[in-house]
């Protein structure tokens, strides 16, 4: 069940892991005990909602909301079946949302959930977005009072790079005294408290990208076909890694994107750009989840266990190498790499990714 407040003008449906599982169990217990929210005057917060465990813009927020509602999917599992764990594209600012196996609402349908979608407007629909936001804000507050967190596009994260702030973030509260929503986004540190931003902020996305508004996750009406979802994700991981069918946006996919990255930083004059740092932040996190996902599903595929174990090792090594490169390509790194230490690390990470994908290719014939 999908509804849009913009008369159907836009169809987007085409488009620490163990700790998180424990947190999901705790939140279920908290619900049973009635310890779900704190309200003081004009301020309401849903307690015991997990935070982001993976830096990822489309699916980890949904995992957080579903965890509060009682599901126990690990962050790695959601990254795996959604395909995000195996994705790399660009390299550009929009790559982490423009290249995906599915869209957020597709994941909810896969998991058996109904939802209502309140889209604010398309690119440039600034006035429509403002008008629709005025109607959406009370709905979000109603959901918070009902102890149901809300996914809100472009809710909190605020940097100078708007495209990279566009993501589904989790609203868990509001403070009318300050006129803000409260919640979590993917780039908060582990010690940071709730983020806050003005309640109307999501409408501002219409100035530079689709203002996708809110997703309200509703009743569970179906069940996940886990084997089908897992096999589909593995097949798509292999297809994506070898995808050379574009140009488009993003300009490169899979191994071609990695190769572009390596070749860029082989050049003496190469400069780190915002898209480099953004893609590094996301993919270093999601590709670590790839190894965790494969390790999690391996017991269900005993014939393929050896290949899955090798793939797990390769994706973990890739993530370690990307982490090592952080001082050279992360947000706080210098603009240039005069000693040219970055490209060998990217090449090493690429090779681990390629080896992991090759092991998944070996798995596919064994799945029946």
In words, what does this structure look like?
The protein is an alpha+beta fold. The chain has 2 domains: 17-72 and 113-220, Cathepsin B, Chain A, CATH 3.90.70; 226-366, no CATH class. It has 13 helices and 8 strands. It has helices at 17-32, 60-68, 75-82, 95-98, 104-110, 126-145, 162-165, 226-241, 254-266, 274-297, 305-324, 326-329, 342-363; strands at residues 37-40, 43-46, 113-118, 150-153, 168-175, 180-184, 195-198, 214-220. Strands 1, 2, 3, 4, 5, 6, 7 and 8 form an 8-stranded antiparallel beta sheet that branches. Strand 5 (168-175) and strand 6 form a beta hairpin. Helix 8 (226-241) packs across helix 13 (342-363), helix 10 runs antiparallel to helix 11 (305-324) and helix 11 (305-324) packs antiparallel against helix 13 (342-363). The radius of gyration is 20 Å and the shape is globular. 48% of the residues are buried.
Briefly say what this structure is:
By secondary structure, this protein is α+β, with helices and mostly antiparallel strands.
